[in-house]
Amino acid sequence: MAGALRRRHRWRKALHPLIREIPVDARFAKGRYTAAYSGFEARELDPSAPLGDENGMLLAPWLAARGIAAVDIVGLAADHCVRATALDAAAEGLATTVISPLTAAVRPEMLPEVHDELRASGVTVLSLG
Question: Which candidate, 42, 121, 39, places its Cα nearest to that of 75?
Fold first, then answer.
């Protein structure tokens, strides 16, 4: 049991120390047992459920239920997961912003094309500087 509990909470250790203890409303996971690029394929994790439980609410209805109308997207990889998440967010009707300096790409040479695609879909792409 202790090993499962440790595994269930190891995500906190991967976070930067300055944000590790910030309270969160929910945690979502994608791609644990099947391939997934978009955060909108993620399901809410229930800390009291068994480790492999994949029955949580999907991200889009979770956001809608809370009246959330805008999202900022950062992370890895800008040309795969960030791209897919931003496109899905825009398709859901959310005001969507990708904060480019807080992303990294698998193929950085593709970023101009990815940013053009995002902008054409109504996504705001921020570059700081």
Answer: 39
Backbone angles phi, psi at 9, to 5 degrees: -110, 10
Q: CA 81 to CA 95: how far, in whole Å?
A: 18
Chain centroid, CA 54 distance in Å: 16
Q: Which conformational region is residue 95 in: left (phi greater than 0), alpha (psi within -120 to 50 degrees), or beta?
A: beta
Residue type, 85: T
21 vs 123 pLDDT, higher one: 123
Lowest pLDDT segment from 42-51, 93-102, 106-115:
42-51
> Which amino acid makes up residue 54?
E
CA pair distance 115, 79, nearest whole angstrom: 9
CA distance 45 to 112: 34
Helix, strand, or coil here: 97? strand
Taking the C-alpha atoms of residue 46 and residue 68, their distance in angstroms, rounded to an integer, is 21
Q: How many CA atoms lie within 13 A of 123 on its CB side?
A: 29
